[in-house]
Amino acid sequence: MAEKTVHSEELGDIVIAPEVLEVIIGITTAKIDGVYALRNKRFSDRLGKQNEGRGVYIESTDDKVAVDIYVYLTYGVSVPAVAAKIQKEVKEAVAQATEIVIDEVNIHIVGVMTEKQTKPALEDLFDEGFFDA
Fold first, then answer.
1. Dihedral (CA of 118, 94, 3, 70) sign
2. Model-level pTM?
3. Sorted alphabetically, which Pfam families does this protein's record hold (predicted)?
4. Vertex 58, ends 44 and 94: CA angle to 5°?
5. Among 5, 12, 56, 75, which lies 20 to 30 A Cα-Cα from 116?
6. Binning pLDDT at 50, 70 and 90, where does residue 62 land?
């Protein structure tokens, strides 16, 4: 997804980079009860898995925006309920912060983590430099 012009006025354009949306989506998702972590390099490395990306992917075609989010959930939660909450809150957070309407929020459950494993800190959920967007 290329940078998206959100608003044009006499003063100029407001353009939002996709990395900004990734950060908003990642933080919103990570704060939802039942979400253990997003799939990312640091977390995958801790599990002994190879790097599988940040966990948030955005695609824009024909003025439609689709988001794919890859998450690990906490054992015992209702998968459909947590997924629906992620979809709702991500759409609202992005619309509120950027005025961009997301048409699809696709949730991919990568795994379920037991209560015995410590939940990672928010900054550990993202690759280095993720917040530098």
1. positive
2. 0.73
3. Asp23
4. 105
5. 56
6. confident
Euclidean distance between CA atoms 35 and 55, whole angstroms:
12
What number of other Cβ atoms are within 10 A of residue 110's Cβ? 20
Dist CA 39 CA 42 (whole Å): 9
pLDDT tens for each residue of 113-132? 886 666 666 666 555 655 55
The three-class DSSP label of residue 64 is strand
Q: What is the H or E stretch that residue 107 is in?
A: strand 104-113
In terms of phi and psi (left: phi > 0; alpha: psi -120 to 50; beta: otherwise), the region of 3 is beta
Q: Is 18 helix (H, G, I), strand (E, B) or coil?
A: helix
